[in-house]
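your task:
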Amino acid sequence: MIINDSYTSKRTGITQSIQYEELDSFDAIRSLPVGAAGSFCFYENKLVLVYAKGRNSWETPGGGCEPGETFEESIIREIREESNMKVLKLVPLGCDTFTNNETKEINYVLRFAAKVEPYGPFVEETADGEITEMKLIDPKDYKQYFDWGERSDAMIKKALDILK
């Protein structure tokens, strides 16, 4: 499944075209210059959200890929750093391709689903202090926190179906 969408940043005003492609494996795209990954994480049937202070928004855990990391290593590290959660199961959902409509620059963001459990209590992210809160919500309520339209609907549905 492919979903085409667009997004205009509230911060910069820049509009990007987005193409989300549902994938069951990332093998075919391992050579792409993926810059970031995000994951719909579930703990005891609740969706894990983290608050990004600098962007003033609730988000799914995720972030930039570091040199030498595999896609999977990157998202597991980000989940641990941002939520203090251990990944028990990790599955690919798909890939967002963001194209800046002005510069034509392309950024790839991988999307995962994960079953997680806490290492311990939530601790504010110390690497950059960006993540200051975490909460567990009923997945059906996610649009109260973020809404990517048809893309997030498809990702949540697939995540819940495969992590049952």
In short: The chain is about 15% helix and 45% strand.
